[in-house]
Amino acid sequence: MLARIEHLPEHVLGMRATGKVVDTDYHNVLFPAFTLYRQQNEWLYYIMVIETPIGNFSIEALLNDMVLGFQYFTRWKKVAIVSAERGVITFTNTVGKLLPGEYRGFHLSEQEKAFKWVSS
Hints:
Elements: E1 2-4, E2 12-17, H1 23-40, E3 44-50, H2 59-71, E4 76-83, H3 86-95, E5 102-107, H4 111-119
Parallel strand pairs: 2-3, 3-4, 4-5
Antiparallel strand pairs: 1-2
């Protein structure tokens, strides 16, 4: 399930992933929130807090995530991915070096640090 993280600065969009994450989570939660967010922000500051194993994301959900990333390829300013899984953090830090904007992976224990980083 995806849920919007409230009480962030207006220029930051945040999502929290728990349990199973499926295609409809993107279509019913993330995409509508992102559409409104994008209308108000030229540069994109995004944080995803993943509180579930990455294996709980359906293939369709992961594809939707890639579509979103490529749709705004040159608009990402800062992206923080927070997870307990070392592989997710490493992937974010490695692949992020190849993409426009700044990408950083954080461990779940570093959530506050991630919120501060993506907000600055």
